[in-house]
Amino acid sequence: MNPDARFDAQRMSGPAARWQTRDFIVAAALAVPIGLVWSFVWEPIWRPAVALVPEAGQFIAGFYIVAGVLSGYVIRRPGAALLGELLGAIVEIPFIGAGPTLFWVALLEGLGPEVAFLVTRYRRFDLPVLLIGGALGGVFVLVGYSYVAQSWWNLAIGVQVVRIVFKLAGGAVFAGLAGKFIGDALVQTGVLNNFPIARARQRPI
């Protein structure tokens, strides 16, 4: 077992696996700013993109999954990705007026990265896992929302394929890759020194 996996395996057993108050605080500190960015920066970008080129909108929508990937990457506890997405949605709902629908979509988006981390038993948080987590967030939204509420099954097969590809690619890039970039940048500032994402880098090998 490599050192990273051994460290995470030890942390995910016994008392260390339990959530602490600071974990909730950091989850909120990560998700709230992202929720504001979703509302005031990304939403004005996404809406005209969808209106002009729907496929491009599916790609850009990947950023709506970043709170889940980032929270899971930083906190590394079961439920962190799901909590990050839901907290971000709570911030976003009053500003864009989507109501309960947005909360349901956020739940689906958070389940994607949560499943990716669960499959690794919360022991791997490298770039491939983050990319898969972001893409899975898109998959869950496709199955639980796009095909049901937006009737994607009525679209031509070619259009469906293009949108699915863009949705998965957007989740991988704008959530998986961006989540890693943001998390690594925060580690460099020292604000996450007491969290697994930083300790995994600091311990001797």
Can you characterise this structure?
The chain has helices at residues 3-11, 21-52, 54-60, 66-75, 80-96, 100-119, 127-149, 157-189, 196-202. The protein has 205 residues and is mostly helical. The chain has one domain. The chain is globular, with a radius of gyration of 17 Å.
Summarize the structure.
Helix content is 77%, strand content 0%.
Strand content: under 5%
Q: Quote the distance from N terminus to C terminus.
A: 12 Å
Based on the structure, what is the oligomeric state of the protein chains? single chain
| Nearest-integer average pLDDT | 88
Order of helices and strands: HHHHHHHHH
Please outline the major beta sheet: none
**Helical stretch tally:** 9
Notable features of this structure?
single chain; mainly alpha; globular
Helices and strands in order:
Layout: H1 3-11, H2 21-52, H3 54-60, H4 66-75, H5 80-96, H6 100-119, H7 127-149, H8 157-189, H9 196-202
Helix pairs in contact: 2-3, 2-4, 2-5, 3-8, 4-5, 4-6, 4-8, 5-6, 6-7, 7-8
